[in-house]
């Protein structure tokens, strides 16, 4: 290399009408005048793309890639018939030679019948097949699939689709192109909807599982209470059971604004997913309304509003915790229910002085968890409503109960 070449910082080369430009000072590379980058097929591209395909599913991955690669097909087709050849087939093959310099493979067109609107395209040694040849699971050539459908829809004068057949031994893919009402956009929309339905079903199964766990915990708590009653006649057994209940008690954890709170499970009747409610005129602002729960009219208190927090719309994670609050069965609307926790008596401390946002009557104490390094507020269910508020609520419930029951 001459001294002049050593000082040179820019290089240009053209292969098969594909122009390439390197700027060593900037560390940049342009292909067809567009900023580009070179990657090893293995491991670089495979390490980037294969995990993505596995994460979202091969079918959705194929349509996403095909949809992206099909964009710009009109411009590609126009270039093929105006600049690269005297006819489409000649222009397409010239385009194929150009992109083969970037590792797209070698292109052939064994069939192009514009009258029947059919065609066959074969590609060998494309980077997509090379990338997957050592993989246990494969997803074909979605990049070429989208590009071929986009270009040939213009070339054949109508929407078309392609069957894809791969010969792994020869690292070749054949696309059989034919007229069709199917579009990449429609197929992508269907796959997205299907994935959404699958996700919703999985979420519902998770909600059902969590609900079953909570119901099981409630059954266990009720059984423990019954066992305690049966053993009252046995002094030593009674003392042992009482000590056990004093040391450990079960609490349901729920969230409000990303903070965790606890309610003693013995105060809870049941936990249900949020459901539509009927508003009560003139009721306190934190009472959202009432629901008809198996024939019983239950008022629903929004605990966010009760604690002076910002009101938000309910989501598919919002739950109603039905509690026995001082001889009044009430529902508490919370952001979500997180699970069940055992808390030792010695890990419960007195609540701090009120800061203007939370009244002392709402709180029994603060529960520490050394393992999780968390502090949770234990809610005093009996203190959620003052005597005056209970009287006002009972008055409005009695006043509207007949109409509410009929409408429910």
Describe this structure in words.
- It is a single chain.
- The protein has 408 residues and is α+β, with helices and mostly antiparallel strands.
- Helices cover 40% and strands 30% of the residues.
- 23% of the residues are buried.
- The model has no long low-confidence stretch (mean pLDDT 86).
- A hairpin with a 4-residue loop joins strand 7 and strand 8.
- The strands form four sheets. A six-stranded mixed β-sheet has the order 16-9-10-19-18-17. A five-stranded mixed β-sheet has the order 11-14-15-13-12. A four-stranded antiparallel β-sheet has the order 1-2-3-4.
- Helix 3 runs antiparallel to helix 8.
- It has eleven helices and 19 strands.
Summarize the structure.
By secondary structure, the chain is of the alpha+beta class. It has eleven helices and 19 strands. Helix 2 (41-56) packs across helix 3 (58-70) and helix 3 packs across helix 7.
